Model the fold of this input.
Amino acid sequence: MIYNAKTRKLILPDGSVYTGLAFGADSGSRVCELVFNTSPVGYQEILSDPSYTDQFVVMAYPLIGNYGINDDDFETLRPSIGGMIVRDYNDRPSNFRSRASLSQTMAALGIPGITGPDTRELVRKIRRQGTQKALITDADTSLEDALALIRQAPTPHDAVSRVSRTLRERYITVNPGYHIAAIDLGMKENILRSFVARGCSVTVFPWNATAEDVAAVRPDGIFLSNGPGDPEDVTPAIDLVRTLRGRYPIFGICLGHQIISLACGASTYKLKFGHRGGNHPVKNLLTGKIQITSQNHSYAVDEASLEGTGLVVTHRNLLDNTVEGVMCRYDRIFSIQYHPESSPGPHDSTYLFEEFMNLMGEPSHVSQEVEM
Done:
């Protein structure tokens, strides 16, 4: 609970108004896409996941803020989430790792929050109507002005360029087993931790790196990260995969999965309300095993478009049968739609990092010289 907070409103395009108390930043009016997440824990990772750029996240679990914010679990130090809507915010956290409250952290980062709205109703509405633009604003904003702001707000197409690194960075381990070239499309830090923990050195490139840039560092494999927005907007990464396909092992997560599919000739589409949470069941079609996964994405790969691409479906979402993984064994390419590096969990899919390392140990069927 918070005290002496001012009233704040969330307004939807159909004229629905949800009133609550403000926490986090005092940011005036802001329009973003409204989505929901079903995870009961991990709000710090959600807050700092670059894939939530320009989105208001409705937390389906009611109690948020009770264990505070610590120094170690950020997925980026420059969070770009639009805002957070919760049922019951706790401003008096109790945890030995806590260094600040969620509200203090959001205020410092310029991120607004609302506590009090019926989040169950909001989740049901998003499921029925789909994701949509919404407005977080002060209590005195008229409904007429609010709806005009929502209508006039443009749809951004530069999210990846805003959250990616701008300079190349190198992460070195002692006696590395492999050297990975990673394309930062909005990469979560735990992906880098996962590679380094397995004895890999990683050179991280900005989102618009070229095939020449990547080939120049002579990597053992190429990784494409998660990130926000429409995958069709990220043409430099699509071109990079098209050029280097078959020359290096390539592994993609989330947006990286969509980029790989587009580069191979498939197509993507926007889901009605996306997949966001830590409890999505996915079947590995190669082993028959079912994994509980962490997900955060708006787009999916069109299965019908995979014909003739060389890609085959390896994983399937058991909630809606969407494609959750693809592979081209000949070209040493594979990708998955969910997050095997998930923190705080689940950890069913961490084996995929080992599979990438095994793939980097196999010989290529083509020369690694890049033809331009």
